[in-house]
Amino acid sequence: MFVDEVQISVAGGKGGDGCVSFRREKFVPRGGPDGGNGGKGGGVIIVAQEGMTTLLDVAKRREYMAQNGRPGTGKKRHGLSGEDITIRVPCGTLVKNAQTGDVLRDMKTHGQRLVIAKGGRGGFGNTHYATPTNQTPRYAQKGRKGESRDIVLELKLLADVGLVGLPNAGKSTLLSRTSAATPKIADYPFTTKTPYLGIVDLEKFRRFVMADLPGLIEGAHKGLGMGDEFLKHIERTRLIVHIVDIAPLDDSAPEDAYRIIRNELSSYSEEMASKPEIIVANKMDMTDSEERLAEFSKAIDRKVIGISAVTGKNLQRLLTEIAEVLWPAKK
Ligand SMILES: Nc1nc2c(ncn2[C@@H]2O[C@H](COP(=O)(O)OP(=O)(O)OP(=O)(O)O)[C@@H](O)[C@H]2O)c(=O)[nH]1
Ligand SMILES: [Mg+2]
User: pTM score > 0.70 for this model?
Assistant: First the structure.
């Protein structure tokens, strides 16, 4: 499941109180003040983390409270600072003020940090207040409260493009060639077990998220091979890239493979069936592929882009075609 919106409360830890204390030693009847400062409260920090694709982990908790600072103690010992809490979110997560909906930050790049709730300052111990005219201050400062707020995390990393096809068509290979994602690739069907996301960077400011789905089989829409679960994840994509193996080992016809998947998409929902689709013939590095491609295109009476996810052939053209659907030129 992609969890794409979560509301949480965050709070920095309270600062530790300062300490009132006086030196007590043998032979030092009236020792001076020696109360230490309180420690700083921990902060709550949001960090963008590459490779995460859902807010599922974040959603396991409603409240994120950092640790309080420890109070100061005698002998001028300062309290320990409270520990920070780090909330890791996928790159592309918007941090919003839950009350107003204002975007506080777009966590775009890996490692980007946002201190969302500062910890409170620790209070000064009485040592701090000693002056020549008041050598025995009997007060210390309280620790300050940490910041607290309600925020909404919203993941914008929903897939724009969904890759579908029979098992072994080369979906994961294509994703790994066009993004930094590293899905498992192998020469047997059902290698991919769960949807996988990759970010494809085009030119500046243009990037899209592509979801690699596990291979679909006949009956997927009814739940065979968990196909309905997977199809759910591409419900909100704007475009389907349908990959067909142009030279399948069992010599089956590419148009049959194509129709099986089309049938699953339309049985799943009307909406799915009517999504824009780019048809891709993969493994064009295999022998006789040009002839096969021509036959295939003719059989289904649709335009087909021939690529090789392995050699990289025509990948740029495919990405350009995808971009044209996602960012149509204004007339
Ligand atoms: N010759 C050739 N082999 C390819 C090409 N693309 C993928 N393959 C091979 O096809 C096999 C399946 O590739 P995957 O990318 O795992 O296929 P998939 O569609 O993700 O498969 P599932 O996850 O099982 O649905 C692997 O052995 C790949 O190396 C290609 O362009 N040319
Ligand atoms: Mg795969």
Answer: no
Confidence of residue 2 (pLDDT cuts 50, 70, 90): very low
Strand residue runs (E) in 111-224 = 113-117, 148-155, 161-165, 196-201, 207-212
Buried b (16+ CB within 10 A) or exposed e, 92-107: bbbbbeeeeeeebbbb
Q: What is the distance in A from the centroid of ligand 1 to the CA of 36?
A: 65
Which one of the ligands is nearest to 284 CA?
Answer: 1
Beta bridge partners of 278: 241
- What percentage of the chain carries pLDDT values higher than 70? 96
- CATH 3.40.50.300 in the chain is located at 161-326
Please list the residue range(s) of the chain that carry CATH number 2.70.210.12. Answer: 1-157
Whether the CB of 167 sits within 6 Å of ligand 1: yes
Q: What confidence tens digit (pLDDT) does each residue in 266-282 have?
A: 999 999 999 999 999 99
> What's the CATH fold of domain 161-326?
Rossmann fold (3.40.50)
- Ligand 1 center from residue 171 Cα (angstroms): 7
pLDDT digits (tens, 9 = 90+) for 115-159: 999 999 999 999 999 999 999 999 999 999 999 999 999 876 567
Total Cβ atoms within 10 A of residue 88:
16
Instruction: Name the residues around ion ligand 2, CB cutoff 5 A.
Output: 171-172, 191-192
CATH class of 1-157: mainly beta
pLDDT of residue 267: 93
